[in-house]
Amino acid sequence: MEAVRMTLNSARLASIIDLPRTLRDREVDIIVLPKAEEPKDHHPDSKRESMMGCLSEYANPALRELEKGAWERAAVEKYAKK
């Protein structure tokens, strides 16, 4: 990997970079590195483009009917005047 390093007065950087006060009017080292390439695929065996359904093997079909209206019931339970 190729890199460039140079030392210069931070006043020369003032128009390019917003430096903290502690670095102003001082000699600073500038190091330029190429940006690391981001991996295109996190898992070599992964062919999915979406995570939808990835936890379906853990679903309990017997509880699926209880999911309908669960949010509404929880909101009523939490916020309904007693």
Describe what you observe in this structure.
- With 82 residues, the chain is of the alpha+beta class.
- The protein has a domain at 1-35.
- The chain has helices spanning 64-67, 70-79; strands at 4-9, 27-32.
- The radius of gyration is 28 Å and the shape is elongated.
- The protein starts with a strand and ends with a helix.
- The model has no long low-confidence stretch (mean pLDDT 85).
Number of beta strands: 2
Helix percentage: 10-25%
Order of helices and strands: EEHH
Alpha plus pi helix count: 2
State the main characteristics.
two-stranded antiparallel ribbon, 82 residues, 17% helix, elongated, single chain, alpha+beta
Briefly characterize the structure.
With 82 residues, the chain is of the alpha+beta class.
Secondary-structure blueprint of this entry?
Blueprint: E1 4-9, E2 27-32, H1 64-67, H2 70-79
Antiparallel strand pairs: 1-2
